[in-house]
Automatic annotation (TrEMBL):
Lineage, broadest ranks: Bacteria, Pseudomonadati, Pseudomonadota, Alphaproteobacteria, Sphingomonadales
Subcellular location(s) of the protein: Cytoplasm
Gene (name only): argC
E.C. code: 1.2.1.38
The organism of origin for this protein: Sphingomonas aurea
Pfam families: Semialdhyde_dh, Semialdhyde_dhC_1
Similarity-based family: Belongs to the NAGSA dehydrogenase family. Type 2 subfamily.
Active-site residues, as the UniProt record annotates them: C116
Domain annotation Semialdehyde dehydrogenase NAD-binding: ranges: 4-105
Protein name (record): N-acetyl-gamma-glutamyl-phosphate reductase
Swiss-Prot/TrEMBL keywords: Amino-acid biosynthesis, Arginine biosynthesis, Cytoplasm, NADP, Oxidoreductase
UniProt pathway: Amino-acid biosynthesis; L-arginine biosynthesis; N(2)-acetyl-L-ornithine from L-glutamate: step 3/4
Role played: Catalyzes the NADPH-dependent reduction of N-acetyl-5-glutamyl phosphate to yield N-acetyl-L-glutamate 5-semialdehyde.
Lineage top rank: taxon: Bacteria
Amino acid sequence: MTVSVFIDGAAGTTGLEIGERLAGRSDIALIRIDEARRKDAAARAEALNDADFVILCLPDDAAREAVALIRNDRTRVVDASTAHRVASGWTYGFAELDPDQRERIAGARFVSNPGCYPTGFLALVRPLVRDGLLPADALVSVNATSGYSGGGKAMIAEFEGGAANTAFRPYALSLAHKHVPEMTVHAGLTHGPIFQPAVANTYRGMVVEVPLHLAQLVAGTTPDAIRAALAAAYPAGGLVRLSQDGAPTVSIEDDAGTDRMTLHLFSNPDTAQVRLIATLDNLGKGAGGAAVQNLNIMAGLDPLAGLVL
Ligand SMILES: NC(=O)C1=CN([C@@H]2O[C@H](COP(=O)(O)OP(=O)(O)OC[C@H]3O[C@@H](n4cnc5c(N)ncnc54)[C@H](OP(=O)(O)O)[C@@H]3O)[C@@H](O)[C@H]2O)C=CC1
Ligand SMILES: CC(=O)N[C@@H](CCC(=O)OP(=O)(O)O)C(=O)O
């Protein structure tokens, strides 16, 4: 079986990553438009309506416009932007979020690819809320650092052109980052987490951390219970894997250049505190890898085709 796929925004950071993963696959026929017409609405509309699947790698407004340009009831969509991640009629494209999420994605016409930071946050927190270990009204925070490719072409130019002039820059200091709604909704929390992102002077990779006092969890919850919940949520052999933490070091490079995500749990019985940490690639499981995974699931293809494990 061959499916036709159009990447709208193929010349951008995420679009190029996805194009690389799909190139050379015999089960995918890529639809391309001339470089000179890649922002031309008529050319895009033709490709959007010809394709079995489209992957939107566009700014939010352009992603909404692309969806409006689809005039048939056949073309299926994976949107990598933030535009539809808590929108009704859209399925959240995080296959490992819940036991039946993969099946929901398989049957969906409109799938929103998760944000890169929410991918790490939700992997750590969603199983704890679902299993009743973390109360839904818990007040949590999430600290995270991303490589600068997370900011797309503009941020890459800033760092590689020498204008950034920093090794590490906290941002979103207004406490209103665009990822907080999807973190809240899909974790099943009633309060948004305090989100403290930063960008580091490295191209790709992320560290996403949720620190918790055991007192924030339901009484009697132990680090072993948290580990058991995470182990049950992420069976071996998938893209999301639970580290055994024999060698307790974590770095932003750990999963860079791959489509996997690694979860860590560190704890100290004396302080009754835990640090839950996810490492991933903002362009891998945080964007392009997840989009290809969703496409594979929706089209009924080999679920790991084109992915870097
Ligand atoms: N970078 C990352 O790590 C992640 C990005 N995303 C999301 O993916 C989307 C793309 O981001 P990213 O690749 O980083 O951004 P880039 O800025 O690198 O790429 C966006 C691309 O879209 C093109 N574009 C803009 N407007 C239009 C339009 N109207 N029609 C056609 N093409 C258009 C741009 O053209 P031009 O080249 O001329 O500027 C550019 O090539 C965003 O919504 C982003 O939030 C999601 C997860 C992670
Ligand atoms: C370092 C950096 O600037 N990161 C981006 C998010 C990266 C991203 O890809 O956001 P989406 O997944 O929602 O598209 C930011 O914080 O806005």
